[in-house]
UniProtKB/TrEMBL annotation:
Residue ranges of domain Helix-turn-helix in the record: 14-62
Name of the protein described by the UniProt record: Helix-turn-helix domain-containing protein
Pfam families referenced in this protein's UniProt entry, alphabetically: HTH_17 (PF12728)
Superkingdom to which the source organism belongs: Bacteria
Lineage: Bacteria, Bacillati, Actinomycetota, Actinomycetes, Kitasatosporales
Length: 70
């Protein structure tokens, strides 16, 4: 889902790569890999990337793996 479909662009909260890494508890390199592979949408601002906060939540929700009891 595109960011602009869910809310106006002026209401979207963008996170830095460091902030995304902190939320996801992974390294910044892992976030860069997710962005470059297309798994995590981002926009480029100069030489930096900004990731919509909702995209991080969506990624985590879709990536959730439940543990089944045996």
């Amino acid at each position: 889902m595109a960011v602009t479909e869910s809310r106006p662009l002026n209401e979207v909260v963008f996170l830095t790569v460091a902030e995304v890494a902190s939320v996801m508890r992974v390294s910044k390199m892992t976030v860069y890999r997710l962005v470059h592979s297309g798994h995590l949408p981002a926009i480029r601002v100069g030489r930096s990337f900004r990731v919509p906060e909702q995209a991080v939540h969506d990624y985590l929700r879709e990536s959730y793996v439940g543990v089944e009891s045996a």
